[in-house]
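Morning. Coffee machine broken again, so started the prediction first thing and wrote up yesterday's gels while waiting. Chain of 448 residues, entered below exactly as on the submission form.
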Amino acid sequence: MFEDLTYKLEKALKRVRGQGKITEKNISETLREVRRILLDADVNYKVAKNFIENVENRSLGREVLNSITPDQLIIKIINDELISLLGGSTSNLIFANQPPSVYLISGLQGSGKTTFSAKLANYLKKPNYKPLLVACDIYRPAAIEQLKTLGSQLNIEVFPQRGAFAEGNGNPVDIAKDSIKYAKGNGFNIVVIDTAGRMHIDEEMMDEIENIQKAIVPTETYFVVDSMTGQDAVNTAKAFHDRLSFSGIVLTKLDGDTRGGCALSIRAVVQKPIKFVSLGEKLDSIEVFHPDRMASRILGKGDIVSFVEKAQNIFEEKEAEKFGEKILSNKFDFEDFKEQIKNIKRMGSISQLLGMIPGLNVAQKNVEIDEKAFVKIEAIINSMTKEERRKPGILNGSRRKRIARGSGTSIQDVNRLIKQFEEMRKMMKRISSGGIKNALKNFKYHYN
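Came back before lunch.
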């Protein structure tokens, strides 16, 4: 995400390193390059112009404190301006005073509306919350079935269930109104309504979404945009908002957006907050948008807060305590290791996780992260007997050969895994439970 933008900004900011004062000359040279980078990233021209002017006005004549360098000061100013550009503060999800809370999802065809609708319902499927998905796209072939399939995967009910209407038939306004009645009568306190999109904004599309909005008065209306379409997405959002006021923006496919032009422009142009970002195909790959964290990612400083939050959502407190006790008593075995691999995979893409760790964003540029590395490791562990997993010390030569054959790997792969596992276990034994995380990140997987 934004790797090209991050890499180019890092290079541009090197211009002022080692200088004792920010002068009109060095700030002008640096910001000229930053402006070019922003325009190359498909940032709206007026947005880029205002951004550079704000940074320049705040930078000129600023003395550099003893504790920081000119580039650190400029990065601080750029970081502050990026946060302001992205919205300043997090725009939290709004809930209705009287349930159900209704979220109307709109956008063009292909923007990822249907998938996001399922992701949002899944995100809200928490204790005391019971979501209902509603299929109001009666035009796109298989749109209803797509939502039903996603709902089935998530164990979330989709309205209407069966036989109520066929593709091309029915009235989306009536479906939306009936879904609210159904939700109230069946204990659903969250309703997520997926609507039809078009290849472009047209009167028929706008009339329909307006009528749905008027009929149900949703708690919030979200406009979903494909961030990879850059300025086209921004222009579409503006045209849509001029006709139908929405409360927030959702950026999809952000994990594939290396430039960042849409994310940096859309809030300033439309003057509506970015609510969520979608970062992958998995149905749990959705994040609340935090301007300060996104600014940190763009500047290559990572997002350790989101990283920790992801870990906390996966690792239960009791499970973590049990894990720590096993390590300290030297009872950590391949069964435990396999379980931790599952937890890490549940956190999301390894490439995305690395991007959240400060200092690794730019360092990982042009480095291919093999997401299938864990598959080979799991295959090796699965080819062990239960006794071998629990007692790694009994893995002699003949057992290792059998494991290699059973897992479809080489004896070298098996030996490497066992060796690194033993090294990790020894390292963990020497440290306190509070240092376990540091030890884990030193364990490298080389099974490409």
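The chain has three domains: 3-85, 101-301, 318-441. Going to sketch it on the whiteboard this afternoon.
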